[in-house]
């Protein structure tokens, strides 16, 4: 399988007055065509910023540096803003965490979806309307013709997320970035939305990046997993390797702190706080303060990337 | 580590026919403006005021066409007359029909009020939206200019503009509009700044919307609420300035009547023929009050915290 996205040495920094925040610190990863990649990590670990950087959608205080961000043979770092705009929504789309605030309350649902096609000159208004109605049906919205003319406030949270998905997929993108798409939905709706994303992914043969802090969601959907901590990728593996041979102490701790059904013992937690990205220790491993297996060299030397298998890579001194 | 419980259903083809629970909520057909109107209607005083303003506008349009008198012709056989069947509001010191003068005054006040409001919106919202949307240095430059406009006494500035531009309806509304948009600019900037943070802006950008689409389709329509509310307070404000200019003799050229000029003349005869000041002053006050009440109603209607 070929790669649809190849990110090499990506760094995203935010400068505020005199502090430099390294939100994403030198990470590299690839996504295969038609596969699902899950990025997991705590809040502030840089998972969202990573994917926003790929689309070059970060606040103006931020700066993106990368060796390359190769998307289907084009280096996104070298494109102008105008060329980038043609890629967004057409080749790469994004859905967001909060469906309640992700739709413009003043535009009818149908217009809002079909406008994406018009921005990219992919259809005339009449075709756009037909395709939108078909798409609304695809994403599981009943009576799409009536729904076409309704406003966002007439939709429930789960329905709005379906609309968001329709809006993201109407341009038939090759890559969908789902940034915590189910975090603000209740559990039954969550399952439906995930099933819908999976269905659309298989149907359109597109690739999906799923950003989440919910390990169950991540492993249900993913072919491959990335675990991020303090702006770095600490472990990268296929789903099977992740579930059976998780190796980095952070990943192990994360899996250990996941509640399971019929669990008798007390739920484990990871001691300490996520690191403050403002004064992060660049010398050693960012996880050192909370690590249960730390060694002396961990706080002095940056851990190397260790290849455990062709598809399994971690950054830890334990496995050198 | 081997076993990992997945609490969600692995069945992946439920997307086509989701459970009926989500669909069962019957939504009645209503539009964005329908909801606004319903909320607005709840405030009876605002509703009555709105009807009153509509009536005034109709009067200003139809009145001059059907009135038996005009505002120019003096009648020296009928000076200072008390209200009668022929002259419902009496006559002034030139024997002109008071009702006719008030209706022409109303027409002029409305033209100046709405015209100046439009000028304020065009300039204020453009500058405020640009500053808020693009931020950075542009924001700094534009907002310092706004600060200067805000600091200068606008009435004095209007006066000077009137002197320079001349004294007809159009120049007066321009003179008022050009000097009082600073508040509107600040409001528009604040609105744009807060709306810029909402998720749907980022969502639109992530799907390839251009800056102009985001400004005109996403930001401004969501900012209109407070801007309209502010407008409904600025229109009577502009009317007051127009009357103020007339009061000191720098308003619309006589004999074209203006409320300010009528009040000025009436004040000279306040003891002998009080109706000369009473009628214009009362209609003036009622008009201003009606706009203010409509503004209150609009503010409540646009308040998202209210239930629909």
UniProtKB/TrEMBL annotation, chain A:
- Listed GO molecular functions? ATP binding; ATP hydrolysis activity
Q: What is its main location?
A: membrane
- Can you cite a GO biological process for this protein? peptide transport
Protein's UniProt keywords contain Transport: yes
Sorted alphabetically, the Gene Ontology cellular component annotations on this record are: plasma membrane
Q: Locate the ABC transporter domain: which residues?
A: 7-255
Task: Please give the CDD domains that the UniProt record associates with this protein.
Answer: ABC_NikE_OppD_transporters
* Protein location: Cell membrane
Q: Which domain of life is it from?
A: Bacteria
Which keywords does this chain's UniProt record carry?
ATP-binding, Cell membrane, Membrane, Nucleotide-binding, Transport
Establish whether keyword Transport is in the entry: yes
According to its record, how does it sit in the membrane?
A: Peripheral membrane protein
Q: Which family does it belong to?
A: Belongs to the ABC transporter superfamily.
Xref: NCBIfam families: oligo_HPY
UniProt name for this protein: Oligopeptide transport ATP-binding protein OppD
**What species is this protein from?**
Candidatus Carbonibacillus altaicus
From TrEMBL, chain B:
Q: Does the keyword Cell division feature in the UniProt annotation? A: no
* Ranges that cross the membrane: 47-67, 109-134, 215-233, 245-265, 277-295
Subcellular compartments: Cell membrane
User: How is this protein annotated for GO cellular component?
Assistant: plasma membrane
Per UniProt, residues of the ABC transmembrane type-1 domain are 106-295
KW Transmembrane helix (keyword) present: yes
Keyword set, alphabetical order: Cell membrane, Membrane, Peptide transport, Protein transport, Transmembrane, Transmembrane helix, Transport
Q: Give the Gene3D superfamilies listed for this entry.
A: MetI-like
Q: Identify its membrane topology class.
A: Multi-pass membrane protein
Principal location: membrane
UniProt-listed CDD domains: TM_PBP2 (cd06261)
What Pfam families does UniProt report for this protein, alphabetically? BPD_transp_1, OppC_N
Q: Which GO terms describe its biological process?
A: peptide transport; protein transport; transmembrane transport
Region Disordered, as annotated, extends over: 1-25
Family note: Belongs to the binding-protein-dependent transport system permease family. OppBC subfamily.
- The name this protein carries in UniProt is Oligopeptide transport system permease protein OppC
């Amino acid at each position: 399988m070929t790669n649809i996205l190849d990110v090499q040495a990506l760094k995203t920094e935010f400068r505020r007055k005199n502090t430099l925040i390294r939100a994403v610190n030198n990470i590299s990863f690839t996504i295969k065509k038609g596969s699902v990649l899950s990025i997991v990590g705590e809040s502030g670990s840089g998972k969202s910023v990573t994917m926003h950087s790929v689309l070059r959608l970060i606040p103006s205080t931020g700066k993106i540096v990368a060796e390359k961000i190769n998307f289907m043979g084009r280096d996104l770092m070298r494109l102008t803003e105008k060329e980038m705009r043609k890629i967004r929504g057409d080749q790469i789309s994004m859905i967001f965490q909060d469906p309640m605030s992700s739709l413009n309350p003043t535009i009818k649902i149908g217009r809002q979806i079909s406008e994406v096609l018009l921005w990219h000159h992919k259809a005339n208004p009449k075709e756009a309307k037909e395709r939108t109605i078909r798409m609304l049906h695809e994403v599981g919205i009943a009576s799409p013709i009536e729904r076409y003319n309704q406003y966002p406030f007439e939709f429930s949270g789960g329905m709005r997320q379906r609309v968001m998905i329709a809006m993201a997929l109407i341009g038939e993108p090759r890559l969908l970035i789902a940034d915590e798409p189910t975090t603000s939905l209740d559990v039954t709706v969550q399952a439906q939305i995930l099933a819908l994303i999976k269905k659309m992914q298989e149907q359109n043969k597109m690739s999906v990046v799923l950003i989440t802090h919910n390990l169950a969601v991540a492993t249900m959907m993913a072919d491959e997993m990335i675990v991020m901590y303090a702006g770095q990728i600490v472990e990268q593996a296929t789903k099977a390797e992740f579930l059976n041979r998780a190796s980095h102490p952070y990943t192990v701790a994360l899996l250990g702190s996941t509640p399971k059904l019929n669990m008798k013992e007390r739920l484990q937690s990871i001691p300490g706080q996520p690191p403050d990205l403002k004064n992060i220790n660049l010398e050693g491993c960012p996880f050192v303060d909370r690590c249960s297996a730390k060694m002396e060299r961990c706080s002095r030397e940056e851990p190397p990337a260790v290849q455990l298998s062709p598809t399994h890579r971690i950054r830890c001194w334990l496995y050198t | 580590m081997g076993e990992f419980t997945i609490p969600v259903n692995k069945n992946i083809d439920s997307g086509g026919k989701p459970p009926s629970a989500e669909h069962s909520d019957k939504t009645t057909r209503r539009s964005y403006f329908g909801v606004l109107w319903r909320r607005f209607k709840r405030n009876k005083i605002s509703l009555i005021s709105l009807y009153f303003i509509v009536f005034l506008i109709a009067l200003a349009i139809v009145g001059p066409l059907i009135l038996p008198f005009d505002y120019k012709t003096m009648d020296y056989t009928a000076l200072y007359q008390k209200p009668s069947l022929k002259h419902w509001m009496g006559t002034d010191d030139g024997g002109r029909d008071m009702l006719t003068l008030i209706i022409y005054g109303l027409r002029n006040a409305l033209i100046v009020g709405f015209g100046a409001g439009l000028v304020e919106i065009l300039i204020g919202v453009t500058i405020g939206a640009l500053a808020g949307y693009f931020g950075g240095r542009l924001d700094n430059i534009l907002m310092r200019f706004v600060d200067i406009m805000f600091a200068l006494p606008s009435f004095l500035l209007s006066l000077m503009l009137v002197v320079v531009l001349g004294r007809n309806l159009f120049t007066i509304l321009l003179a008022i509009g050009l000097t009082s948009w600073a508040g509107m600019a600040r409001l528009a900037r604040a609105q744009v700044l807060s709306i810029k943070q909402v998720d749907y802006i980022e969502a639109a950008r992530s799907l390839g919307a251009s800056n102009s689409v985001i400004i005109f389709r996403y930001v401004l329509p969501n900012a209109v609420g407070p801007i309209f509310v502010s407008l409904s307070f600025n229109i009577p404000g502009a009317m007051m300035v127009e009357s103020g200019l007339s009061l000191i003799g720098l308003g619309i050229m006589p004999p074209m009547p203006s409320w300010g000029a009528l009040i000025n003349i009436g004040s000279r005869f306040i003891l002998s023929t009080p109706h000369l000041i009473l009628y214009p002053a009362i209609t003036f006050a009622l008009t201003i009050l009606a706009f203010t009440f409509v503004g209150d109603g609009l503010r409540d209607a646009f308040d998202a915290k209210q239930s629909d």
